[in-house]
Amino acid sequence: MKIHHVGYLAKSIDKTEKKFFELGYEVEQATKYDEIRDIKIEFLKNGDYRVELIEPMGENSPMYPLLKRFKNTPYHFCYEVEDMDKAVKELESKHYTVIHEPTIAPCIDGKKVAFLNNISMGIIELVEF
Predict the structure, then answer these.
(1) What residues contact residue 19 under an 8 Å CB cut-off, 6+ apart?
(2) How far is Cα 3 from Cα 77, in angstroms, rounded to an integer?
(3) What is the 3-state secondary structure (H, E, C) of the chain?
(4) How is the beta sheet containing 73-81 ordered, strand by strand?
(5) Nearest to 74 by CA among 34, 125, 37
(6) CATH topology for 2-128?
(7) Rounded-to-integer distance, Cα 64 and Cα 34, Å
(8) Where does the record place a coiled coil (predicted)?
(9) In this predicted model, what pLDDT tens digit does every residue of 33-83 receive, in sequence order?
């Protein structure tokens, strides 16, 4: 599987992006609001590396508890897959647990995404291309 991006929790996208700019990143996709997850998302790129900045908009966001616990931090890798159902089943057979069923991601051009967790790996995201 090819890495699509690294998900990075941010208390404030505006403040965090400035630090990424200092490291040579540029905006690939301006900030958008994801009403499904109650978060703002912005994609930054530096060469072949893409970072997704994620800012929970309030305590009702499923990302808020992670931000509260870990503060600003990378927290998942996202991998591109051709067939979401097949990829999920394969990972479940390798002891990954689905923590967010496949659903549309408004900020990734409406692509289907799913989140899984493995005790030895942590959280990963799949995006169907």
Answers:
(1) none
(2) 7
(3) CEEEEEEEECCCHHHHHHHHHHCCCEEEEEEEEECCCCEEEEEEEECCEEEEEEEECCCCCCCHHHHHHHCCEEEEEEEEECCHHHHHHHHHCCCCEEEEEEEEECCCCCEEEEEEEECCCEEEEEEEC
(4) 26-34, 39-46, 49-56, 2-9, 73-81, 122-128, 111-118, 97-105
(5) 125
(6) 2,3-Dihydroxybiphenyl 1,2-Dioxygenase; domain 1 (3.10.180)
(7) 14
(8) none
(9) 999 899 999 999 999 999 999 999 999 999 999 999 999 999 999 999 999
* Domain boundaries, given as residue ranges, for the chain: 2-128
Q: Closest Cα partner for 34 from 49, 16, 13, 15?
A: 13
Instruction: Kindly state the average pLDDT of the residues 83-89.
Output: 98
Q: Who's near 60: CB < 8 A, 6+ residues apart?
A: 38
Kindly report the average pLDDT of the chain as a whole number. Answer: 96
